[in-house]
Please model this.
Amino acid sequence: MNLLAMMESGKLKLLKDENLIQSLKSIQYEYVEREGRKTELRIFGNYSHIAEGLIRAAWLAEKDK
Model:
């Protein structure tokens, strides 16, 4: 959500890179509900390593401020 908010607000601009676009498109999510526990958000994908790195970098960039 942080990465999305940064892109929508213009704080972050991405290069038009095929691998990056493919990685972002591969991201999937699901809500996991277990009795007696909080609902968890599971994020996964087959080609998600680039997107995961971008998510972590954006979080660190926002945290630094």
In short: DSSP finds three helices and two strands in the chain. The radius of gyration is 14 Å.
